[in-house]
Design a protein that fits this description.
GMP Synthetase, Chain A, domain 3, three-stranded mixed sheet
Length: 198
C-alpha cells in the first residue's frame, strides 16, 4: 500500500470527517457559488449573480427575463460545467430568478449609459410600415391602439439609439447587446458549451 504524504493524510482525514458529518456535501455545494464566474465564463458572469445553495439547488440571480429564459434552456450544459469545475458537486438543479431592487450588473456603468435621447430619431419608412401593420392587427379600442403604437415607436427608436451607442444585434437570437464578438453573452455561453460538449 502506497504511503500518503503528511499533507495527503490531513486532506484524506479531513475529507473523511467532513463526509461523515455531511459538511463535505454542503461545502461542495457552496463551492459552485464561489466558482460561478469560472463555470459560466467572465462574459455571462457580468449579468448573473450566485445567490444561494441549499439541498442540491443552486439559485442564481439574473438581470433580465431574457437571460433567465436563455439560462433555463442551457441548464443541462451548465450543470455539466458545474461537475467539471467543482467535481463531486451535489448540485442537481439550477434555479434562476430576476434580481431587482438595487442589484446592478457587474459591468462598468456610468449615468450616461441610462440616458437615451429619442427625440431626434426619425424612423425609416419600413419601420413605420411595420408598426402600422402590427397596430392594424391589434384588437382593442382606439385608446389601447394609440398606446400600443407609442410602445412600438419607443421600441424601434430605442433600437436605433442603442445601435448609435455601439450596441449590435446577436447573430443567433437577434437581441441587441454591447460587447465583443457576434453573440450576446447568453448565446456566447451556449455556443461555448455546445462546442465543448461536442
Amino acid at each position: 500500500m502506497e504511503r500518503r504524504s503528511p499533507v495527503e493524510s490531513i486532506k484524506f482525514s479531513l475529507n473523511k470527517f467532513l463526509t461523515k458529518h455531511d459538511f463535505y456535501i454542503k461545502i461542495k455545494g457552496h463551492e459552485a457559488l464561489l466558482k460561478w464566474d469560472e463555470i459560466v465564463g467572465e462574459k455571462l458572469a457580468k449579468y448573473t449573480k450566485p445567490l444561494s445553495y441549499k439541498e442540491g439547488v443552486l439559485t442564481i440571480g439574473v438581470v433580465s427575463s431574457l437571460f433567465m429564459r436563455e439560462l433555463n434552456a442551457m441548464k443541462p450544459q451548465i450543470l455539466k460545467r458545474v461537475q467539471e469545475k467543482v467535481g463531486e458537486s451535489p448540485v442537481h438543479e439550477l434555479r434562476f430568478r430576476v434580481v431587482e431592487h438595487g442589484y446592478k450588473p457587474r459591468v462598468k456603468h456610468t449615468p450616461q449609459d441610462d440616458i437615451i435621447d429619442l427625440s431626434d430619431i426619425k424612423l425609416p419608412a419600413e419601420d413605420l410600415a411595420w408598426i402600422e401593420n402590427l397596430v392594424s392587427k391589434f384588437k382593442g379600442d382606439k385608446k389601447a391602439k394609440m398606446r400600443y403604437r407609442e410602445v412600438l415607436l419607443y421600441f424601434k427608436k430605442s433600437e436605433i439609439a442603442r445601435k448609435k451607442m455601439g450596441y449590435k444585434r446577436c447573430k443567433r437570437c437577434g437581441t441587441l447587446f454591447k460587447g465583443k464578438g457576434d453573440f450576446c453573452p447568453a448565446c456566447e455561453l451556449e455556443e461555448r458549451l455546445h462546442r465543448k460538449g461536442g
